[in-house]
Amino acid sequence: MAKMTTQEETREQNMAQVASKTEQFFDKNGKIIYTCAAVVVLLAAAIFCWNKFYLQPKKAEAAAQLFPAEQWFADGNYELALKGDDNNPGLEDIIAQYGKKAGKAVYLYAGVSALEQGNFNDAISYLKKYDGKDNILLGRAQACIGDAYVGLEDYSSALSWFEKAAATSDNMFSASYLVKAAAVCEKTGDKAKALSFYKKVKDQYPQAPEAMDIDKYITRIELAK
Asked: Can you give the pTM of this predicted structure?
């Protein structure tokens, strides 16, 4: 029983020492701790206020401004979508004013519109800023970058982006990107690589529309050897 009492006394002494050290620590560093805590609280409040009273209203404003441009884009009026009219801003002005606050898709719309207008460098610049999470749309953006590089006759870059688009989508849309990659290879005289892309379409995406005529492309290259 005496032994147990000694253990209890030792435990109480240890606890007292810990409490004393803790008290000493707070006595010494209390101001710093409270200051840091206050800064964290103020920072959290500032972030909340910025999000609620600035960011969210800006996003709502940008969405309202974007609506007419989205309609023009959907109708294929790419020049209006980019430039806007006397009453509504186009994608160029919306991006300049709001950036990503207008939503990630604004860069995809602008990039495709610029591509359709033959403004290849602008198209590349916009599309490279698109970072949507949907792999189908991201793959389309990457393929459009490839199309823009074809327009600039930079076939090496075009091929790289078509391959990237096919890997990103990894579905039947990939077949069209692989056919684009093959066409670039044929343009540059790399028949073997073009053949590998055509065969990949046949083997991996047999249900894709591009696969219906793929044998004639394969046969054409094989007969030319």
From this structure: 0.74
